[in-house]
Amino acid sequence: MQRLRHGLTLTLLLAASAQADDRSTAPRPILLDSHLDTPMHLARPGWDITARHRYADDLSQVDLPRMREGGLDGGFWAIFTPQGPRTDEGRTLASEHGLAVLTRIRDMVASHPNDFELALCANDARRIAAAGKRVVLISMENAEPLAADPGRLLTYQRLGLRMLGLVHAANNSFADSATALPEWHGLSAAGRALVGEANRLGIVLDVSHASDATFDQVLALSRAPVIASHSGSRVVAASPRNLDDARLRRLAAQGGLVAINSFASDLITRRPNPMRDKALGPLYRQFRNAAALSPAQVAELAGRIRAAQALYPQQPVTFEDFINHVLHVLAVVGPQHVGIGADWDGGGGVEGMDDVSQLPRIRQRLLAAGYSETDVADIYGGNLLRLVEAVQRSAAAQDRPSGCAH
């Protein structure tokens, strides 16, 4: 009998050990950010995505060493085009700029084939991450590069574009922005046509930066789920870029996703600081032209920005402020409709999470709040990949296959 009890105890210990081994060897959830502005750094002379940088030195937040340290498998790398004048010359410059940024993203992948790989669908992303490489999905922030020829969306799609943000900080040819006075009262006629074409081509529509009317009309017109790739909760902070609870619920009800950003002015309601804005505005505009600056000039500009921030301090924004948005949106729509879109290299970052090396804090905080590892895996990247699949399935039903098996 005693021998039997010993045998049973040994069996139970071995089973527990096997379960522990299974947990330790379970696949790590894929961590994908839905909005990386890092391509703006790729144009800078001497800037190397495979070298470790410091935000304090060159204002960058994403590179290969820090991605590895923070467990960031990749995400959507944005073709961002600042809104210029809506003239023939302005539309031409926007068209050229968009294609130039797309080329830089593809050149990064081609130059580092052992580290990065272009993904055209969710299965690509899973395979690339499993191989230990970084996932490069391509998005567009501000559709103005298409204003001269909206038909060029097909060209972008063939070259890898899988997400389209219609508008940025100013109204454009397609839609009203959340931070501008109404012009189209939502979408223009060209914008409505662009929504249909994006659906047809299997391109995810992104309503971050869109006005409320634009958001409402995109959801009404789109035949596929929609994303807010870097937004937050208007209940937590009254930024026009954030979404109210009713719109969050409607987005989720249509299978959509809201990815929470870490852009400080969207996370808390700050007191106006006009002297700070006046000092920093020209410096940030200069940084947008960093492709024309040497590394020494970029370092000098970073120092001037830090000095202006110190001269005109404002209420700090912390990791817990970011988490407040995450937890509120989770409470409203559930963990199947939330993701991470921190706006890295586009103004994101808070105290306690100022670059991608610190991303593991999100998982720790979610688990502490009572969410499961399955929930974390969904929020980290599972929801985003399922959204891409849903949009591409919708396009395939319209006889526009993406070239990937679903």
TrEMBL record:
This is Dipeptidase. SUPFAM superfamilies: Metallo-dependent hydrolases. InterPro entries: Metal_Hydrolase, Pept_M19. PROSITE patterns: RENAL_DIPEPTIDASE_2. GO terms for biological process: proteolysis. Keywords: Signal. It comes from Pseudomonas turukhanskensis. Residues 1-20 form the signal peptide.
